[in-house]
Amino acid sequence: QVQLVESGGGLVQAGGSLRLSCAASGIIFSIRTMGWYRQAPGKQRELVARITSVGTTNYADSVKGRFTISRDDAKNTVYLQMNGLKPEDTAVYYCNADLVSRQVWGQGTQVTVSS
User: Fold this and answer.
1) Can you point out the beta strands (E) in the chain?
2) Alpha-carbon distance 51 to 59, whole Å?
3) Which tens digits make up the pLDDT trace of 18-35?
């Protein structure tokens, strides 16, 4: 059974930093593209960052230069380092595993940035 468990969310002031972690089980982690998405109240879920099995990354324009996605295949974990947080980054952040035939999602972790 595939499972993704996120951690690291919380409340932070604008300009602060947080690091999200997503631990995966039940998949061959090293060959999978992993991603972070977010959903703010009243908005659609959107891609924040994605990293392929060979380390190629892509980011939403709104987070480029502030957020960094990375992975540790030995720990089956993907990270999202978020610096320079803004109130508009407030959302529930979801970890995603692309299994090609289907997408798997974590339960989400709340990130709240106060002004």
Assistant:
1) 3-7, 10-13, 18-25, 33-39, 46-51, 57-59, 67-72, 77-82, 91-98, 103-105, 109-114
2) 9
3) 999 999 998 888 789 999
Question: 101: which 2 tokens?
Answer: 């035939």
Closest CA to 93 of 105, 84, 102, 85: 105
Compute the distance between CA of residue 62 and CA of residue 85 in angstroms, rounded to an integer. 11
CB contact at 8 A, 87 and 113:
yes
Look at residue 23 and give its three-state secondary structure. Answer: strand
Give the pair of three-digit tokens for residue 16: 């602060």
Coil, helix or strand for 29? helix
Cβ burial, residue 25 (10 Å; 0-12/13-18/19+):
exposed
Per-residue model confidence as pLDDT tens digits over 28-65: 887 899 999 999 999 999 999 999 999 999 999 999 99
- What's the CA gap between 71 and 66, in Å, rounded? 17
